[in-house]
Amino acid sequence: MLQPLPTALSQDHLCDLDQQKFIDDFNRRPFKIGHQLNDHPLFALESLIALSKDLPADRVEYNAGNLPVSQDPTSTPKNGLSVEETIQRIQQCQSWLVLKNVELNNEYGDLLDQCLDQVKPLAALVSEGMTHKQGFIFISSPGSVTPFHIDPENNFLLQIRGTKKVWMFGQNDREVLPETQVEDFFSGAHRNMQFEERFRERGQQFDLSPGEGLHFPVVAPHYVENGPEVSVSFSITFQTQDSSDRQTLHRFNRHLRRIGLTPSNVGERPGRDNAKLTMLRTLRKVKNIVRRPADA
Ligand SMILES: [Fe+2]
């Protein structure tokens, strides 16, 4: 049974956000925020065990946590424990665990909404729309590593317990992240990437402690190293119209490449991007009209 939300935390102010930071950097560059979730009972290990039992089994992913930064996703080692054992023994069991789509549980869904309700008006200063709201909770052992990878969402990672070092690279740095790799990712390829030591000088390192959060722009490559304590983090993610359009363009460019064309990279020629989006929206509308059954 989950514990009730304390009155002090049931107010609107869960995150400390800076309007100018959003205008300058949202979905362009990483930036830190503050939050008030450190002592929230939904992040106690007993609550997280209850949540892991409530979520569908395919929404819980875990493995050994002593991985290299460059990890082949086809050979990620298991830890030999159940989900409950993994969370109970997280201090010692050298593991990494993520609870995905925690919004499927009403209490965690409400908390995600409360946080994102604060983010929404500021994100809207840069890009309209907030869709596909999803929450992820990461529970990891001291010293564990999240390998180098990219993610498809606008993300704020809120550090609840323990510390992390995040290495982050530019979403448009094509030395680190080739355009074709982004296209493959949005067409179903695995998120993990090979890290090359020459990348390091192109990245930024962020130290995260409880009460701090970090914005991850869409597909900004990153890897994460835990500090010497158990770590619990809450990732609040969403799409905007811009990020959805970007996915559409990357997928479309992949099709164009497969038929032998050389499309302009996404963002390089905004006029061409807009023309592609307009054409794809028109095609979708025509398809819907053709498919619509005739009126009786
Ligand atoms: Fe990530």
TrEMBL record:
Signal peptide: none annotated. Residues 94-255 form the JmjC domain. Pfam families: Cupin_8 (PF13621). It comes from the Bacteria. PANTHER family: HYPOXIA-INDUCIBLE FACTOR 1 ALPHA INHIBITOR-RELATED, HYPOXIA-INDUCIBLE FACTOR 1-ALPHA INHIBITOR. This is JmjC domain-containing protein. It comes from Rosistilla carotiformis.
